[in-house]
Amino acid sequence: MTKYHNRKVKLDGYVFDSQAEARRWQELRLMEKADAIHALEVHPTFFFSINNVSLGYYKADFQYWENGRRIVEDVKSEATRKLPVFRLKKKMMLALHGIEVQEVLA
Question: Per-residue pLDDT tens for 3-31?
Fold first, then answer.
């Protein structure tokens, strides 16, 4: 058990941080099989740097393409979606990579 009371889940060779994240994985896999989305990735990592200075990274829960658009998702509970570090990384994703992270509520 973690400080946010989530339980890690092993599924299809991946370790998900919560049951909600594992459920979302199953939903996205079905969508991919139905050709609604493609190029589904688990835990893609995005690096932040300015003027060749590394500022850290953000590891999303999922990334995929839908109707020609890149979608980056993070499964969040009400408690974790308000964390300052997540809010900052979400803003950095938009500012440095032009990607708006989609929050999926658990």
Answer: 556 788 898 889 998 899 999 999 999 99
**Residue 19 to residue 17: CA distance in whole angstroms:** 7
Cα–Cα dist 51/32, whole Å: 38
In degrees rounded to 5, what are phi and psi of residue 38? -150, 170
For the chain, which residues make up each domain, given as ranges? Answer: 9-105
- Under DSSP, is residue 82 helix (H, G, I), strand (E, B) or coil? helix
* Token code pair at residue 42: 């688990």
pTM of the model: 0.87
Taking residue 104's Cβ as centre, other Cβ atoms within 10 Å add up to 17
Two tokens at 39?
């190029």
Q: State the DSSP code for 43.
A: S
If one counts every other C-beta atom within 10 angstroms of the C-beta of residue 49, the result is 11
